[in-house]
Amino acid sequence: MAHLFTGIGTAVATPFYNNKVDYDSFKRHLEFLIENNIQCLVINGTTGEASTLSREEKNHLLEIAVETAAGRVPVIAGTGSNSTEASIEASKDAKAIGVDGLMLITPYYNKTSQRGLIQHFTTIVDAVDLPAILYNVPARTGMTIAPETVQTLSTHKNIVGLKDATGDFNYFSEVKLLADESFAFYSGNDDAALPFLALGGDGLISVAANALPNEYQTMYEHSLDNFEEARAIHYRLYPLLTALNVDVNPIPIKALTAHLGFGNYELRLPLVPLEEIEQQKLIHEFDSLKAGV
After folding, report:
1. Which one of 135, 171, 216, 220 is the catalytic residue?
2. DSSP symbols for 167-189
């Protein structure tokens, strides 16, 4: 199976207004991303605060994304959870809406074994019959997908890629060697995107690209034909990426999407906004980058 996408995808933030989903701002943000060369939209992921969204909210966000994308870029739905049955239900909803693929996180809290991971993921994709990207983010879930498990899962016709947010290049090198050659690898760490691409990665599912889609896609394209320029872009972006580490995702990036006019600077509890001085420092770093300072 061909890759769902190559290049830069965005884990899209969910805007709120008075604690309600701001669907108009969401649609405008999607148009901004597509017009600025994003290659894929990932909806209802960590950056989208999916754990605080209702089923109805998640589905309506997917409906808007599918309608707005209109086949220009693929739409991937984050439907993973620590309940296999709940993931199947969400995945069936997403398929009925018309998404192009799924993103499935490892179970959290009720952590399982590697055998359990294999059964969890294969049970979901067998029930739904959509291509799926696995999401390995041990810092959030407390467990990882072992390289040998990736190797086993990569042979399944519906399991087509891995979002690797381990930040461990030894891990990536090992799974890259073991996995089926048609299997796709996407970095889940903005600051590690370029070295990941240099080692054979197929793209990035980015947080920062919510505000910098064209910059990241340009870096990806130059990683293929002009690595010196790609490296220069990496270092231009790096101070902002450091600034985005002031708090946990998506708290900082939503300050920037609000600065760009895509919704209020609101999050749902338990997440809270940055302090005003932190917001201003981050916005100053972003504006300086865009101004070429």
Report:
1. 135
2. --HHHHHHHHHHS-TT-EEEES-
163 tagged catalytic:
yes
Q: Determine how many CB atoms are found less than 10 A away from the CB of residue 259.
A: 15
213-225 helix and 227-243 helix, angle to the nearest 10 degrees: 150
Each domain of the chain, given as residue ranges in start order, spans: 7-226
State the amino acid at position 124 in one-letter form.
I
For 27-59, the pLDDT digits (tens) are 999 999 999 999 999 999 999 999 999 999 999
Per-position b or e across 217-228, b if 16+ CB within 10 A of its CB: bbbbbbbeeeee
Catalytic position from the list 95, 163, 176, 254: 163
- For residue 102, give both structure tokens: 């799924």
CATH code of domain 7-226: 3.20.20.70
Q: What is the pTM of this model?
A: 0.96
Q: How far is CA 73 from the centre of its chain?
A: 14
C-alpha 166/C-alpha 143 separation (Å) is 10
* pLDDT tens readout for residues 236-259: 999 999 999 999 999 999 999 999
For the question of residue 157 being annotated catalytic, the response is: no
Do the beta carbons of residue 156 and residue 128 sit within 8 Å?
no
